[in-house]
Amino acid sequence: MSVAVSTDPDRIGFDPARLARIDRHFRRYVDDGRLAGWQIVVARRGEIAHSATYGLRDREAGAPVEQDTLWRIYSMTKPITSVAAMMLWEEGRFELNDPISRWLPEFADVRVYDKGSLLKPYTVPAVEPIRVWHLLTHTSGLTYGFVQTSVVDGLYRSAGFDLGVPAGADLAAATEGLARLPLLFQPGTSWNYGVSTDVLGRLIEVISGQRLDEFFTERIFRPLGMTDTRWWVDEPDAKRLAALYTPHPATGEAVRADGVGRAALTEPSWLSGGGGLVSTAADYHRFTQFLLRGGELDGARLLGPRTLRFMTRNHLPGGRDLASFSPDGFETVLDGIGFGLGFAVVLDPVPARVPSSVGEFYWGGLASTAFWVDPVEEVTALLFTQLMPSSTYPLRSQLRQLVYSALID
Description:
The protein is an alpha+beta fold and 409 residues long. Helix content is 29%, strand content 17%. Strand 12 (337-339) and strand 13 (344-346) form a beta hairpin. InterPro entries: Beta-lactam-related, Beta-lactam/transpept-like, Diverse_Enzym_Activities. Residues 22-396 form the Beta-lactamase-related domain.
C-alpha cells in the first residue's frame, strides 16, 4: 500500500511551502549522520497532505527508505493492544474496575516495594488489587527493567526482564514471572511506564480464548486492511526491514545495533502487546484514520465513537497531569499531559511548550517512531525512523512545530 500525497495541501488548510520545511529540517539529521533515514506522513480530514522519505533504511547496505519499508514500532503496539482490550469491553466481557486476578490468579496476592536494596528489598502487601483500568493507564505499579531508575527495575533485570523476558518464556509464563516481582507503588497511586500493556495482552488472550496474534489478525489487522503489520519479519521481507541504530556516545553518529535489531527477524517466544509489532507507514496511517474517524474505517467498525472518546479522555485520578502524578517520564513530556486508556492526552499545550490541540492523543516507540491524532484540527501525523532510545533527539516536538505552523486556515 502507498501513502502518497492524495490532495492539494492548500485545499485542506496547509501551506505547501511551510510543509516543505519539514523535509529540509529532518534531512539535516541524515546529512550529519545522526539518523540513517526517516519517513513522515501528515494528513488532514483523511487526505494525505505531505508524505516524504529520506536517507537509508539500511545505511551499511546502501538501501534507501521506501514507501513499503518495515519499521519496528515498539511501543506504538500499545494503542493497538488497548483497542483490542476495549473491543472486548464493548462486548461486556469485563468492567474496567474488575481486578485482573479474576482471570490471572497469579496477581491475587501481589506485593509492593517499600524500602531496602536490590539484595535485600522489603515489600508490603498491596492494599488495592490491580484493576483493568490500571493496566490501560500505566497506574498498576508494574515497571520496565531497562529504565534503570529504581530498585524494582533492578529486581526485574535480575529476574530476566530487561528489554525482553527470560529465555524461552511465552506470554503466559512471562506474566506469571512478572506477578512474582514487587510493584513499584500501590496500584492507582502513581503513573509509571512499564509492562502493563504486556499483561493486558495476556488478559486479552485469557478472556477471548485466542492467542494475541490471532486476535489482532482476525479482529483488527484484517478488518482495517493492515496487511503488512506483523510480529516478526520472515526471509522474503527481510530486506524491507530498516536497520536499528543507536547514537555513538562520543560523536552522536548513528551506529548499527544489530544485537537488539535482529530480534525482529525471528519468531518471538512471547507476544509483546507492549512493544512487539513491526509495521509500515501505510498500515499505521490506516490505524490513525480509524482512530480519527471514531472507531471505523472503510465500513469496518471496531469500536463505537463514544468508546473511543472515552478512551482519549484523561483517566488519571483527580484529573491530574503526568507531571503531578508520575515520578519519572518516558516516551512523553509530562507537563500539561494526561493519560487515557492507552494514549497520552493533551490537557494544555502551553506547559509543554509545543503547539497542539486540547484533546490530541498520541504515543511513540523506543526507536523514535511516533504518531498523533488531533480530533480538533482533524490532523494525523506519523514519524518513522530507527534510532534507540527515543529520548536522543527532540524529533517529535520538532515535527509538531513544523506541522502546526504549516496550518493556515
